[in-house]
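Severity: low
Component: inverse-folding endpoint
Summary: output formatting inconsistent between runs
Steps to reproduce: submit the following structure tokens with default settings.
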């Protein structure tokens, strides 16, 4: 896990992606469209899709993914219980390394939840 907060991590990652938006606009627009289409409510609601995305972020050990998806899950009203249950599935699918990242994901969710309560 990064030694800084997930709030800082997601802000810095967004800032570091700015040159890609400028120099690779077609790729970035296509990725944004893919994200929007994949996460749009359908047979599964948006929160369920974000829980799946977070589980994959845990299993693939992507710090930045943890931050962005934790923030989205807080915005979508995911409960701590739903989040912990999803982490159990992520650990099942990813083994020991996912267990370590589950702890990081929980820290990200708690950080964004605390910030949302303070708003």
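Observed output (run 2 of 3):
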């Amino acid at each position: 896990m990064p030694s800084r907060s997930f709030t800082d991590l997601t802000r810095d990652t967004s800032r570091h992606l700015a040159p890609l938006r400028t120099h690779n606009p077609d790729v970035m627009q296509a990725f944004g469209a893919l994200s929007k289409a994949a996460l749009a409510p359908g047979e599964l609601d948006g929160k369920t899709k974000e829980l799946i995305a977070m589980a994959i972020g845990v299993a693939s050990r992507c710090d930045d993914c943890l931050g962005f998806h934790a923030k989205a899950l807080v915005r979508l009203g995911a409960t701590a219980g739903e989040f912990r249950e999803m982490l159990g599935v992520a650990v099942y699918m990813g083994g020991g390394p996912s267990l370590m990242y589950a702890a990081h994901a929980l820290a990200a969710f708690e950080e964004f939840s605390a910030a949302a309560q303070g708003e």
